[in-house]
Amino acid sequence: MTTRTVGPLTDELTADFYHFESLLPDEERKILLKARAFMRDEVKPLVNDNWAKGVFPKELITLFRDSGLAGLPYEGYGEHKPAASNLLSGMLALEMTRTDASVSTFFGVHNGLAMYSIHSGGDEEQRDRWLPAMAAMDKIGAFAMTEPLGGSDVAGGMRTTARREGDTWILNGAKKWIGNATFADYVVVWARDVDDNHVKGFVVEKGTPGFDPVKIQNKLAFRIVENAEITLTDVPVPEANRLQNINSFRDVAEILRATRAGVAWQALGVMTGAYELALDYAREREQFGRPIGGFQLVQDLLVRSLGNITASWGMLVQLARLQDAGIFRDEHSSLAKAFVTSRMREVVGWSREIFGGNGILLDHDIPRFFADAEAIYSFEGTREMNTLIVGKSITGQSAFV
Asked: What is the pLDDT of residue 73?
């Protein structure tokens, strides 16, 4: 029997105004609080300096390895042997992004996109071969789908190709914006089979000839993440490294459905972090002889922000319940991604506004949230593309061109 404690255990999240965390069983809430302390004590001190430099601190891998937070969604892998609930997984994404979106994305690419692709798309032998080391973070994963000339149209317009020659596949093409790819041990590469024109998944191991990842420079957002542009030139991949349960883009869509929900939780994390920074600043910053939190216009911005956060919490909690119940569909994650990221944009704008001129100083943290929100708004399906997915569901008419 699972037990729940009403109200916060410790270290209450300021922005959880309706105590949504109390919906977790006590065992999972303890994991969440462990993650909160880890992000606050171990990760946050590394963030601003490396964000400013645009550098990924490799010690993060060791820190996450020691934290035991990887592998939680996958039964039998990681320290939490029963699979963690989707609600806990979502709250962990929120918690990490509340500290920094780049660090959350590094972890999400590894623990979500890469591991979930193998867990969902691989057979039992492949799961047993790759996932234990990934759950221990002895091996790091990446996920390569987006291409230099293809984003929203990647389902039907994927240019990277795979040609089978005996027991080996030869990959050719290019990928772009691939997080972790400059140092990942396993990169899940998606390519179109030239024989049947279907998309298939391949695990390309570090050091494979013809696989050339180059770090993308001069990013405005997600500056800690090492995104790469990858060139694939006659890259040989054994049939044993082809994900055996992926036979078309329909199978890939199953993976994207779950990861899109994770991005919505990240957006809630950005809102939460920005709001909490603004609230603390409003309590401390004085103008006209009193804290600015006592002015009506500032309170209006804070309350509107809290309303967006609370509405997004409600949507995402129910989304996690649909996932756990097995009745989760594309339009569910698409509506969440489109709605929550739009509300996120509002909140980070209002939060930066409360800081006034100080809102452009990295010393106050808020510029990171303001900039990183733009990346989250765009990836895993733009608002427009997710709107069309939901629109098709509710009208029965496809508006895709």
From this structure: 83
Q: Which are the contacts of 45, defined by CB distance < 8 A and separation ≥ 6?
A: none
Exposure string for 187-215, b = 16+ CB within 10 A, e = fewer: bbbbbbbeeeeebbbbbbeeebeebebee
Cross-strand pairs, 119: none
User: Residue 12 has what pLDDT?
Assistant: 64
Please report, for residues 24, 95, 323, the alpha-carbon distance to residue 7 in angstroms, rounded to integers and kept in the order given: 11, 17, 24
Query: pLDDT exceeding 70 applies to what percent of the chain?
Result: 93
Per residue in 302-316, pLDDT tens?
Answer: 999 999 999 999 999
Q: What CATH superfamily is the domain 249-395?
A: Butyryl-CoA Dehydrogenase, subunit A, domain 3 (1.20.140.10)
Q: In angstroms, rounded to a whole number, what is the distance separating the alpha carbons of residues 332 and 236?
A: 38
CA dihedral of 390, 396, 400, 401, whole degrees rounded to 10: -170
pLDDT in tens, 119-142: 999 999 999 999 999 999 999 999
Per DSSP, 165 falls in state: E
* pLDDT at 56 exceeding the cut of 70: yes
Q: How many of the other CB atoms lie within 10 Å of CB of 144?
A: 31
Residues 6+ apart with CB under 8 A from 310: 17, 18
CATH, domain range 141-241: 2.40.110.10
| CATH superfamily of this structure's domain 20-135 | Acyl-CoA dehydrogenase/oxidase, N-terminal domain (1.10.540.10)
Confidence at 4, pLDDT banded by 50, 70, 90: very low
Contact (Cβ atoms closer than 8 angstroms) between residue 252 and residue 201: yes
Mean pLDDT of the chain: 91
SS3 state at 34: helix
